């Protein structure tokens, strides 16, 4: 069964949410120990859009993601999800981290169910387990499955709460090259079938070009958005499509790499 068929065959529906950042800044610490991580970030992510955040280490990509999720508090500006300001941990968003963060004593299914916040969504959990390719492994413990399978479970857990916004912080960085490519395609299929707005952090330019509607490039720490690159290629995309080559060259050049 295809992913779209698996999800549409159950009562699985997501209302994608718009994300609006208005002059958002974030500083850690005070006085001479203050570190300005983000400055004057203004960005709107449309409902159902996939936006990838790209930039040098320490530029605030993960911090920006945490501000949207309500895991950090902004220093100034406004963060809005679906028109409502984010003032704390926000149920309209779900986060997938670089490591799966599964509870080792709970089965794969029980870990996925954590995203439902105690509500009974058995049919939807079945659909998600099927959609991410974990059917037959739902009763395994995390130590009994591969890293790629554990990250599939983390993705399913994030989706089980029907988030309007799916936030991913370098979710495939720890995976081997082949599994990473497979997970990229899985994310695209699941995101299209579920309908969530997606914001993803990565250091991988090829990953950004394969996934994004827009690539938002952040400048050095304490600065703002340096550039926004539109990726006007329909999905599914051919990773070697010649139209992506100039975009890759442009992004590499921004980081001082000249292919």
From TrEMBL:
The keyword Zinc does not apply. The lineage of its organism: Bacteria, Bacillati, Actinomycetota, Actinomycetes, Micrococcales. Keywords: ATP-binding, Nucleotide-binding, Transport. Pfam families: ABC_tran. PANTHER family: ALIPHATIC SULFONATES IMPORT ATP-BINDING PROTEIN SSUB 2, TAURINE IMPORT ATP-BINDING PROTEIN-RELATED. Residues 19-245 form the ABC transporter domain. CDD domains: ABC_NrtD_SsuB_transporters. Transmembrane segments: none annotated. GO terms for molecular function: ATP binding; ATP hydrolysis activity. This is ABC transporter domain-containing protein. InterPro entries: AAA+_ATPase, ABC_transporter-like_ATP-bd, ABC_transporter-like_CS, ABC_transporter_ATP-bind, P-loop_NTPase. The keyword Ribonucleoprotein does not apply.
